[in-house]
């Protein structure tokens, strides 16, 4: 019997995706399953789409800690 592959596409800012990734790794311990992670960004994929402003604000808040760190890292170079 061949192994199955569990492909997990996930937004790295999503806590539910993180919980699902942990579940996938637990399944792989007891089943013939290989887990492949595919990180992506819903913010990036939806940036040019017509989405509700409250959703866009949520996405921007999710990125805020990364943006602050990026600005700080650029200043210390």
Structure class: alpha+beta
The overall pLDDT average reads: 83
Radius of gyration: 17 Å
| Amount of helix | 55-70%
Number of domains: 1
Rounded to the nearest angstrom, the distance between the terminal CA atoms is 53 Å
Overall geometry: elongated
Annotation, overall tally of beta strands: 2
Describe the structure.
The chain is of the alpha+beta class. The chain has one domain (4-75). Helices cover 57% and strands 21% of the residues. Strand 1, helix 1 and strand 2 form a beta-alpha-beta unit. The N and C termini lie far apart (53 Å).
Task: Give the helix/strand layout.
Elements: E1 4-11, H1 15-30, E2 33-40, H2 42-46, H3 53-75
Parallel strand pairs: 1-2
């Amino acid at each position: 019997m061949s192994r199955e592959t569990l492909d997990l596409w996930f937004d790295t800012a999503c806590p539910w995706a993180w919980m699902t990734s942990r579940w996938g790794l637990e399944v792989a311990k007891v089943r013939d399953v290989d887990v492949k992670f595919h990180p992506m960004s819903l913010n990036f994929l939806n940036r040019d789409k017509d989405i509700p402003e409250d959703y866009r604000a949520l996405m921007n808040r999710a990125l805020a800690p990364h943006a602050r760190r990026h600005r700080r890292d650029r200043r210390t170079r």
